[in-house]
Write a structure and sequence with these properties.
Distance between the termini: 62 Å
Number of helices: 14
Structural class: alpha/beta
Strand order of the largest sheet: 3-2-4-1-5-6
Radius of gyration: 27 Å
Oligomer: single chain
Amino acid sequence: MSEFMPVDCHTNNIRLAEIGRCEAGNKQNFITFYKILATVIIMTTIYFVRHAESDRLVRDGRTRPLTKKGLIDRRLVTDFLSDKKIDIVLSSPFKRAVDTVADFAEKYGFNIEHIEDFREQQSGKGLPRDKEGNPSDDFLRKQWDDFNFRYSDGETLHELRQRNIVALTGVLMSYSGKNIVIGTHAMALSTIINYYDASYGFDDFLAMNPIMPWIVRMDFDGDILIKIEKINLFADLGKNENKYQHRRINLESDKNYILECHCRVNYACDCPWARKISYEEYKENWFSNKDQQESFLSALIESMADERTIAEIIKTDSGETVAYFWVPFHGEDESFVWADVQDLYIEEAYRGTGLAAYLMDYAEKSAKSHGAKVIRSGTGCENIPSQKLHRKMGYYQYRMEYEKLLEQDSDNA
């Protein structure tokens, strides 16, 4: 959290208390009292709410809806805002931003006022994107390095920031002294933060980007920012191990679930040519190969003979299954023991909640307690969320593997 305190609130309060003790009949004291009263902070608090997970398959940014997970996660926003004495609910007109604050607005009887200039950045035609449909990291870095960088007919970050700050200034003038909610977007909100804190840059944006929804509280005296606080609604969910129950795998009852999870992990981390088919096709092929299943199960069973191995089903307190985790240990020589994250599967509704980071941290602590020198983990070249998680958790790339697909001659096919 960064704080900016251009006004000495404490001093003003002391002065006001002293003037308040003046004699009621002294006209001059009353004049002085009201002059000082005018200098006391009239606090305006804004809660910027970056939208929950949206459906990237819908290319139209204005109408893109929330996913099923996003509709669930927006309840965290409602819970957080429930005791904040909100007066006004505003939003970007984009559907994903409106829908993220709509649950709160409907529950507490607010109308949502749409403000066009709080919309997200206009992307240029032909913008380079990753496999998930997000703008590529290379493009994002160029933008953050140069706020006047423009791709095709898109907006620069300077233009995006300028119109959002103009809209924000209007809100501060119209709703002075109120507690306000504003539904917004990742890049739009990041440029607002950067306007007040120039140190907020590309790396900060990347760290924030996977967190949906995300809240930033800003306190203003007039149009002067006094304090900024960044709030991760998932922090407690991801870091508090008491929220999750760890159960050792029971192959008699868990076999089908484990095979399904392992198959999904394989698909997410497989090579590009193998992922050209749909998951359902991939699954059908994988389950038709009994040798693959037996090989996996044999390795899992063998590793579970080692008490150090993490082979667990993760459940919530209510009994809902949320993850499967397999981390065997290697190295009979005590001088070099290493842990190997083989499988980590998170149920879709719990992705982005911090659960994956919590489990990776849990594995690291377990590895240390058993004397491991390193912990290793592999992923696929197209599994971008997994790669970002590894970087976030402090993993570095220590080895690379290459593959070349050998096309078969039609005569020999």
